[in-house]
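User: Second chain of the day. Same drill as before.
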Amino acid sequence: MTPAAPVDWDALREAARDAMSRAYAPYSGYPVGVAALVDDGRMITGCNVENASYGIGLCAECGLVSQLAATGGGRLTHFTCVDGAGAVLVPCGRCRQLLYEFGGPELVLETPDGLRTLDEMLPQAFGPQNLG
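Assistant: Same format as last time:
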């Protein structure tokens, strides 16, 4: 078995910043970009897309998992999220739940305090394993 290649967090963060530059955030003024690696080696990205009806805007993580599904599926393995200044931030609780569905507890997230697994960021998560 070949060992996994080391993750280039700088490249992943740069891809998230590039995605953030395409965010549509005229109402909040808070663009967000995300990037993740997939278990087959792909890198995918997403950005937030707001709407005048505020509550139906799409977060960057929604765009990311939509791209995951649209490009063949798979499991997320590594994830980063940046704000409008390009600084690393953590996804909100709702988005952690979304990431859990597509990456599981072993998904590695870059946070301002270092690398964390999703299990550390969302302990005792509800997921597919809870459904009969």
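Strands lie at 33-38, 43-47, 76-82, 108-111, 114-117.

User: Great, on to the next one.
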